[in-house]
Amino acid sequence: MGRRIAIVEDEAAIRDNYAEALARQGYEVSAHADRPGALAACRARLPDLAVIDIGLGDEPEGGFTLCAELRALSRRLPIIFLTARDSDFDVVSGLRLGADDYLTKDVSMPHLLARIAALFRRVEALAEPGAREDVLERGALRLDTLRLAASWQGRAVDLTLTEFWMVHTLAQLPGHVKSREQLMRDARLVDDGTITSHVKRIRRKFAVVDAQFDAIESVYGMGYRWKSAE
């Protein structure tokens, strides 16, 4: 059986279209029309990835609520928003709640499938023995790629899959600048415009553990880098 994807979309025709396209790619699909039903199903059996709309039935913000609920169930679960809403506010809100990607419904099916496949490749790459250091340590930072666990000064930092990957990429070569284009290309799952939102969220999470956290530097006009140890 292939990887299991949960589709949460209140419009039956759209839901069926996505479910059929994903099934043709070999994925096992569970389709849901509302937030309570989707949440109950995910609690019973967590999918390998979730694709959710924002407006769900009589809940205009139901997708946002569901994203937060799913993220509470698992920090590793890849979550993609697929919605007609394309305002910057909605994009930032979705990413702040822990989504890994945000797409609008005018996206082509091949592009959606590519983004889903890219998220699964990222999960596999982090878990593959020997593909990366199992544990990456940079000063107060410790990243365990097998468990997708991050800590700072010995205290856990709860990162999503995308956030974990971004920290891992930056911390691998302290002092080296990663341009926004490099981050976008390497990730294969976020648009250039969402890089800043992800970095801000990462900084806030580390700041909860250490108010003086400043290891991620913005390099004006170039990108970001992990500060070298002094």
UniProtKB/TrEMBL annotation:
Stored InterPro entries: CheY-like_superfamily (IPR011006), OmpR/PhoB-type_DNA-bd (IPR001867), Response_regulator (IPR022305), Sig_transdc_resp-reg_C-effctor (IPR016032), Sig_transdc_resp-reg_receiver (IPR001789), WalR-like (IPR039420), WH-like_DNA-bd_sf (IPR036388)
Record-level GO cellular component terms: cytosol; protein-DNA complex
Limits of the OmpR/PhoB-type domain: 133-228
Biological processes, Gene Ontology terms: regulation of DNA-templated transcription
Keywords: DNA-binding, Phosphoprotein, Transcription, Transcription regulation, Two-component regulatory system
Record bears the keyword Transport: no
Residues recorded as bearing 4-aspartylphosphate in the entry: D53
Domain of life assignment: Bacteria
Residues within the DNA-binding region(s): 133-228
Gene Ontology molecular-function annotations: phosphorelay response regulator activity; transcription cis-regulatory region binding
Pfam family name, one: Response_reg
Residue span, Response regulatory domain: 4-120
UniProt xrefs under PANTHER family: DNA-BINDING DUAL MASTER TRANSCRIPTIONAL REGULATOR RPAA (PTHR48111:SF21), REGULATOR OF RPOS (PTHR48111)
Protein name per its UniProtKB record: Proteobacterial dedicated sortase system response regulator
Protein species of origin: Pseudothauera nasutitermitis
